[in-house]
Design goal:
Helices cover 45% and strands 7% of the residues. The protein is mainly alpha-helical.
Length: 275
């Protein structure tokens, strides 16, 4: 198959060199897809993650609605490129293969255009556009003080500055708020309730942790909420608690203190009552 891909849209000179390199690597891998070859999945996915990370950094430096929406669109496009590029490696042929290749090409081109717009907005300090910000009090935050804690199975000391983290996992209801406010299209399998809203109440599915979201889907929500995903160390320190226990409740295993039967999710507040 002859390559049909065009050069990615011109990126402003303010784009960091590392972002330009990742966009170039992405284009090279997509060129392989379009020409009928096999892309390097690791390189392609790494470039997509780096581009999405760069977009988030721009948003964190601006904190404007226009950049928040750009990050959501970039995450959606990155999902599409990864998904349809993976489909082309499954041995499909004919019209299905041609459609997948076309979607990879178009999504990559749109991704480059969106990155260009984002950096142009940064350089020009463009006015905010469209989209509703998260409602006040959407997330309950817990302050985690600075200090050293024991990290990992080998209990290696690790030092972290002070930070804050969501008290509960993100719920279906919170993720629905994000999708309604931004028009974001998650690509990890999550879908809104058929009724358009979750019923009230602590036992409602809306109060269960959101599942079926990809890394890009999670990143997009975090950006909209004015935050980011926690690092492994940040998550573990918060989960261990101030005493550095093996489990949130202590150092001895108690199966009745957490959801561990494999039957599905439970409301995020259920086991809070036990402690």
């Amino acid at each position: 198959m002859e390559s049909r891909i065009h050069s990615l849209p011109s990126i402003p000179v303010s784009v960091p060199p590392r972002v330009a390199r990742e966009l170039q690597t992405l284009q090279e891998q997509v060129d392989l897809v379009v020409s009928g070859g096999q892309p390097d999945k690791e390189k392609l996915n790494h470039s997509l993650m780096e581009v999405a990370t760069a977009a988030r950094e721009v948003h964190h430096s601006r904190r404007q609605e226009s950049s928040r929406r750009s990050v959501a669109r970039i995450s959606t496009l990155a999902n599409r490129v990864a998904q349809y590029a993976a489909f082309t490696t499954l041995g499909i042929s004919g019209l299905a293969a041609s459609q997948c290749v076309d979607l990879v090409e178009r999504s990559t081109s749109a991704l480059g255009e969106e990155m260009g717009k984002l950096y142009l907005q940064q350089a020009a300090a463009a006015a905010a556009v469209g989209g509703a910000p998260p409602p006040p009090g959407l997330i309950q935050w817990v302050e985690v003080p600075a200090g050293t804690f024991r990290f990992g199975l080998d209990n290696q000391p690790a030092d972290l500055p002070a930070y804050r983290i969501s008290k509960y996992p993100v719920t279906n209801a919170q993720y629905l708020e994000f999708v309604k406010a931004t028009g974001f299209q998650p690509d990890g399998g999550w879908s809104p309730p058929p009724e358009g809203a979750y019923p009230p109440g602590e036992e409602s599915l809306g109060n269960h942790p959101v599942v079926g979201v990809s890394w890009h889907d999670a990143v997009a929500f975090a950006d909209w909420a004015g935050a980011r995903l926690p690092t492994e160390q940040e998550w573990e320190k918060a989960a261990r608690g101030p005493d550095g226990n093996l489990f949130p409740w202590g150092n001895d295993w108690h199966p009745d203190l957490c959801n561990n039967d494999g039957a599905g999710t439970t409301p995020v507040t259920r086991f809070e009552r036990v402690l």
